[in-house]
Design brief:
mainly beta; 2 domains; eight-stranded mixed β-sheet; five-stranded antiparallel β-sheet; 9% helix; 31% strand; signal
């Protein structure tokens, strides 16, 4: 969920909330997914005493979906628990900083969250971004000097879906794009899911034929994902699909596709949601050795 009404989120009864446990593959190398990314977030995040009153406004109007935010809880109770998780983030010098929350928000949810709010907007439209995840990296745009923020959304339970969100601030709020990959570090899914390092290039390629995309650099046809999938096939991409090569070794290339997904069933994604969304994976190529 990206742009949201946090008030509507809060309307869901916590008694029906399903526990989200056992996060998987939380820590990934930002160098693989973000070209020239930086991770010294202290340079773009800050804290001061004025944050408290702004968060109190969100709390008073039930615009938060954290523990201790219902009307029977005082703000003092909430602030004591969550004070260290609130920051200002400055995307550019021309606009006021936004509020950023990061970390755990519910006792029944072992996943971390990243949430961004704009107190200048009307009530129920202040939530610009809210999703599971951790800050992965940021970049400084070379022409505008604006901050581009990257968030890694990771899975829990039996899921293997990851998203790399790219957030840029625009006049109306945030512009959000994302790319997708699959993987788990729980021992029930064959990897590796990505190389240790990649080389970024401006060059694009087009597939010469319909091609299998797999989540690891080998053809696995049995027990690829325990109790879920026998094969490590993600899906096919059609002839003419546009992609970039990030890494090559022997018969395999680690790539990111931008379009051309085949309209077929998959155990790990629904193709209708990925027609113009970036997807990372491995393709087998002819060995030139």
């Amino acid at each position: 969920m990206k742009k949201i009404s946090l008030f509507l989120l809060f309307a869901i009864s916590t008694s029906s909330y399903q526990a989200q446990v056992n996060p998987s593959l939380v820590n990934i190398p930002h160098e693989v997914f973000v070209n020239d990314g930086k991770s010294d977030f202290n340079k773009i995040l800050s804290q001061d005493a004025s944050i408290e009153e702004k968060v109190k406004t969100l709390h008073s109007f039930n615009e938060l979906s954290h523990d201790l935010t219902i009307q029977t809880n005082s703000f003092n109770e909430y602030w004591k628990k969550y004070k260290s998780q609130w920051f200002y983030i400055s995307f550019n010098k021309q606009q006021k900083p936004l509020l950023l929350f990061k970390g755990l928000k519910n006792d029944v949810d072992e996943r971390e969250y990243v949430e961004i709010f704009d107190l200048e907007k009307d009530r129920n439209y202040r939530g610009l971004f809210s999703d599971v995840g951790v800050l992965l990296a940021y970049k400084i745009h070379p022409l505008t000097s604006e901050v581009i923020l990257y968030v890694h959304k990771y899975p829990c339970c039996k899921s293997a879906s990851h998203n790399i969100y790219r957030l840029r601030r625009v006049e109306e709020g945030l512009k959000i794009n994302d790319r997708f990959f699959v993987g788990r570090d729980s021992g029930d899914m064959v990897g590796p899911f990505f190389p240790k390092k990649v080389e970024f290039s401006d060059k694009y390629y087009k597939l010469g034929k319909k091609t299998e995309v797999r989540w690891s650099p080998e053809v696995v046809e049995e027990n690829a994902f325990k109790d879920w999938a026998e094969t490590n096939l993600i899906i096919h991409y059609n002839e003419g699909a546009l992609y970039k090569i990030l890494y090559e070794k022997n018969d395999w290339q680690f790539v990111v596709f931008f379009n051309g997904i085949a309209e077929e069933q998959s155990r790990v994604l629904n193709y209708t949601n990925f027609k113009n969304k970036g997807v990372y994976g491995w393709i087998k190529v002819k060995n030139t050795n």
